[in-house]
Amino acid sequence: MRPLGVELAAMLADRGVDTIFGIPGVHNIELYRGIEEAGIRHVLARHEQGVGFMADGYARATGKPGVCFVISGPGLTNIMTPMGQAYSDSVPMLVISTVLDETVARKGQLHQMRDQEGAAATVCDWSATAQNAEAAYRLVDQALTEFAIHRPRPKQISLPIRVVGGPAKPFPRNKAATLIRANVDTTDIVPILANATRPLFIFGGALAKNPESAAIIGRILDTIPAASFTTYAGRGLVAPDRPLHFGAHLAKPQSADILAISDVVIAIGTELAQVDHWRDALGDTGVRIRVDIDPAVLASDTRASFRINADGGDFLASLERALTTQAIAKPLTSNWAAAEVSQTRKVWRVEIASHDPAIAQSCEALRDALPKDTMIFSDMTQFAYAAKELWDMPTPGHWHHPNGFGTLGYALPAAIGGALGHHGPTLAIAGDYGFQYTMQELGTAAELDLSLPILIWDNEALGEIRDNMVAAQIVPKAVHAVNPNWQHLAAAYGCAYAAPKTTADLCQATTDAFSAGRPTLIIATPEISSSS
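Request: output the structure for the sequence above.
Response:
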């Protein structure tokens, strides 16, 4: 028999895993024994926080689980922040850690924790310890199966050091299985839409994971004269030039007034969480129809007239079929006016641009200049906050942001993982302060020779916190930090560097970086000009 570490690597490869993100340590080296033989690529991060964010970005870019190897104790606690982010944003991440064999009788051991399994459980779907090889195999398959059929959220498996290095029976070979989903019945939904005077759809980020969603949504909206919003994560699901589309502006207070005059609101694949609309109540007063794969989301919505537990893509496909096959007594019309929708969007754009003119100009210039298949990973920064509303995405599922948990330091490592999975132009956007949470991962990006532009919005402050303090009449304290010499930092890691003074230069530097053969630090400031 071979050691469990060897069998586990072979099992992961057999299940379709081709990339693992991790950091080897004294307690988990046995996990690494079988990686080369299994043909799995390993990506070495500089910190376990980077490990988790890279796996997150890879998972979002590919739709496949992001798999991580970390050590016991601090390795696990370091990756808990990315696990929390993945839990909040429904990202499939499998974290495999080692754990001490015994912690009751022996104290003071290296990497000792009181309850490693319990600590991990606070930020993931489930955390379990496999006391033998058979349990490890079962837990891996359980995690991979649940990623496919349930709301995808991170799982954590701890392996005692003696188990991972001990002899194990061969792993069970993968048996091909067909995933069969239950049929979604939309028979009762079509008459409601047919009789509505102001129907409105809210399309969430879960739909962006299905490559067919945008096309189906387009055909549905060709049939039903409904207005629409997307969440931030749902951008690209509706063409930005569609006459009745309000964009990703649910967070605008006036959107509540629009929802209030809608007689039917259908929300599909969105949690409608605080970070989606930033108010206590959505604002709709008519019939609300919720479609979500997570029963807990549906259970929490006591206002909904219909709560449909289904995959959003399956619901869209069923609705399209029903609209085609069911007899509708009259041509569908609505009281929405395209001119009013267009004017509302213009007003919102002016509001955003007036608050941050340089950001608005930079966003719109980049939006028009970048390749349509560019995948973007952003951090918690004022640039991204404006961009999430101003930047209409041509392709769904191509902008990734740490929405719910709101972690700093996400963009760079997530973009590294995303670039490895996307195999196309990839851009990281971070603020000058948040970037420094994980800037050591420049080493990983350089090591991989990634042609990765890293746009840093340098306002020499925690800008959003500063502005909030001023608005609350608090003297702004602890919101300014000394930044490194960016050019020297880039040189230290062998990266390229650019400091554009105009939006035209910004666009050129970014597009050049896609073929640079190494990462490029691009430093933009509020003084950037729209002139050429």
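The two ends are 68 Å apart (CA to CA).
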